[in-house]
Amino acid sequence: MIDHCGAITVFNRAAERLFGYRVGEVLGRNVNILMTDADRPHHDDYIARFANTGEPHIIGIGREVAARRKDGSEFTVFLSVGEIPGSEPRRYVGYLHDLSARIAAEDEARKALARLNHVARLATMGEMAAGISHELNQPLAAINTYAQACSRLLNRPQPDIEEVSDALGEISAQALRAGEVIRRLRSLVRNEDVQRETVAPNAIIRDIQVLLVSDASMHDARLVLRLAANLPPVRVDPIQIQQVILNLTHNAFEAIRDSGDPRHRDVVLSTQLIGDQVQLAVCDSGPGLTEATAQRLFEPFFTTKATGTGLGLSISRSIVQAHGGKLTYDRNSPRGACFRFSVAT
């Protein structure tokens, strides 16, 4: 309890355990000794304002606040303050609930989800390894070819320097191409905290287009992009959204490969503006899903793949939900599956 001046008048044993003070150390002292540096300078003003106007800042209104222990450490509490009826001069009672354990558990859950996201991302990259290696082998083979050509040109009695220069230019271009693939991979597999930024939706897709195309090629499929023009920017973590796109398209390419029908080889990746949200959709022309599979799609560890982890769709749904959206599945027409999710602009 505190009086009308903010001086502590009652400090029970639970408060002693919570703050590390003995009761004799705090009685009569301003309650702001239990506050952080950010809140301490304003507390007396809040009491004075309530006394003069009856306008509460926290009295009668519970909320989470930061508190400070005797040793200087800070922690979060839920604080409810009420005025003691009929007290003159006014007195106030505060009830505090230490939220440290809950916040620590939430923080650990966030870290665990981040680790799981990273594992799922690595698993997706592992499943795409054949396509990625093919994408890297092409520029490396070209570099080798042009390097051998340079050697032959320079061994001539009168080498054509312009031809050598052109070949060296091609080597440089192919090296940059290989470097770009590696850069995209590094950004995707890096385990970092969530970094939201304002980006163009189509740019998110263009940044990983080389990986999408290589994955399609390895599955004898065709990637079709239908990206709406003039979409507003979205505030997202691009790496996480790319993780969702890579997972959905990889699943679609595998569905097409498993269908065995050469007439149906397209996977359509599209964007469009619906209301105040940008919708991304991945639709394939594969065999589609059975009703039993569709009902369990987003369950953790459920998979129809012989070597799948069962994490891809579950993690993708968590990522979309963390961005305020919803990942859904429906049947494609005339055949196949569609996965759609939206992010706010």
Strand order of the biggest β-sheet: 6-8-9-11-10
Q: Kindly report the name of the CATH homologous superfamily of the largest domain.
A: Histidine kinase-like ATPase, C-terminal domain
Structural class label? alpha+beta
Q: What composes the largest sheet?
A: 5 strands, mixed
Examine the secondary-structure arrangement and name the CATH architecture of the largest domain: 2-Layer Sandwich
Radius of gyration, whole Å: 31 Å
The run of helices and strands is EHHHEEEHHHEHHEEHEEHHEE
**CATH hierarchy class name of the largest domain:** Alpha Beta
Predict the CATH topology of the largest domain: Heat Shock Protein 90
Shape: elongated
Structural domains: how many: 2
Features:
single chain, 5-stranded mixed sheet, elongated, Heat Shock Protein 90, 11 helices, 345 residues, alpha+beta, 2 domains, 11 strands, Beta-Lactamase, 46% helix
Task: Give structural notes.
The chain is of the alpha+beta class and 345 residues long. The protein has two domains: 2-98, Beta-Lactamase (2-Layer Sandwich); 110-344, Histidine kinase-like ATPase, C-terminal domain (Heat Shock Protein 90, 2-Layer Sandwich). Helices cover 46% and strands 19% of the residues. The protein has eleven helices and eleven strands. The chain has helices spanning 13-19, 23-26, 43-53, 100-127, 129-154, 161-189, 201-206, 209-218, 238-259, 291-296, 312-322; strands at 2-3, 63-68, 74-83, 91-98, 197-199, 222-227, 234-236, 266-274, 277-284, 328-331, 337-344. The strands form three sheets. A five-stranded mixed beta sheet has the order 6-8-9-11-10, with helices on one face. The chain has a four-stranded antiparallel beta sheet with strand order 1-4-3-2. A hairpin with a 2-residue loop joins strand 8 and strand 9 (277-284). Helix 8 runs parallel beside helix 9 (238-259) and helix 9 (238-259) runs antiparallel to helix 11 (312-322). The radius of gyration is 31 Å and the shape is elongated. The two termini are 47 Å apart.
